[in-house]
Amino acid sequence: MNLTAQLKLEPTARQALALRATLVASNAACDYISGVAWESKSFRRFDLHRRCYREARKRFGLSAQAAVRCISKVADSYKLDRKAKRSFRPMGSAAYDQRILSYNLEASTVSIRALEGRLRISFVCGEHQRKMLVSRKGETDLAFVRGKWYALASCSMPNPKTTEPCGFLGVDLGVAQIAADSDGKLYSGSGIKSVRHRQRRLRAKLQSKQSRSAKRRLQKLSGKERRFAKHVNHVISKQIVAAAERTGRGIAVEELTGIRDRIRATRRQRGVLHSWAFAQLRAFLEYKAKLAGVRLIAVDPRNSSRECSVCGHAEKRNRPNQSTFRCAACGFAAHADTNAACVIAGRAAVSGPNVASCAAV
Fold first, then answer.
1. C-alpha distances in angstroms, 304 versus 135, 243, 254, 281, 318?
2. Residues 149, 172: one domain?
3. Beta carbons of 5 and 153 less than 8 angstroms apart
4. Same-domain pairing of 252 and 115
5. 296, 250 contact by CB (below 8 A)
6. Are residues 179 and 102 in the same domain?
7. Buried (b) or exposed (e) across 65-92, using 16+ Cβ within 10 A?
């Protein structure tokens, strides 16, 4: 399994200037190579190397391997499609391999090749990231994000053996409740909902002012809501996987791919619907379950919110409102999201062998 370890670099003022110059030169070289690729319609890495390698080194002062990485970056960017010419931001991230970047874990330093030569820069990270660095493999991206420097190292983590589950913990994903499991635990979405509402209202107020100070404030607020939602999804997914691992069960989730295209929403609901980060939570569940050796499968979500987890009766009357489930056939009553999670767990237990396990992240 490939994961990314994020390290915060602590360069001196002179080192920071050298890193900035290196990023600008690397991305300028990528723009030049992209122009050659677009004009000549040569998008293969070998063809671009033959056409651009020497000129890129001479024009932008890059080292041999840095030029090779720029050529690879441009070739990879055209693999998605070749309908438009690719351009690169001056401070976009740059990829480094083991020839031009190395780590000293004992001294907590990274040696990186810049335009003016090798730089030895200190870094800080948590113990989890430090353990991941032992299994690093592949490239490291140098990134400049919101005034800070980061090294994003690709690490190849060993895949634990997935144990055969004795049952499944069903997980229902939603907006009012971010998640609900079949054990009856609810993970409320009120915190994220209030933060999103407050941030949306503040952005609209600042955008209407059109002043310099308002624009500076908007820039400072950029990404705050997204980072908060990401943190909450990390916490929830960790708790769900821990509960499944502790009880020896697998995890069953809904297959919600394409749900935004399948449902109708009013104009007032669109902001909430399109900020619903269910795909991110699903991805976090997948890789955390993989690390813990917990099996995770996806089941068909159709009528899971209207089906009774006791008798299996499904109709619209079973769900009188968002939070209430009351079966019209057998009279069973429960929180609607908890009942849906139980239905999902039951579907996984019946159709588990026929449903493919989620792919590794």
1. 41, 22, 9, 19, 11
2. no
3. yes
4. no
5. yes
6. no
7. ebbbbbbbbbbebbeeeeeeebebeeeb
Report pLDDT digits (tens) over 283-340. 999 999 998 999 999 998 888 888 999 999 999 999 888 889 999 999 999 999 999 9
* 27, two tokens: 């991305």
* 358, pLDDT greater than 90: no
Q: Which CATH number belongs to the domain containing residue 349 in this structure?
A: 3.30.420.10
Q: Find, among 354, 353, 332, the residue nearest to 343 by Cα.
A: 332
What is the domain extent for residue 128? 2-156
Overall domain count for the chain = 2
Task: Give the percent of the chain with pLDDT over 70.
Answer: 92
Amino acid at 165: P
Indicate whether 142 and 279 sit together in one domain.
no
pTM of the model: 0.77
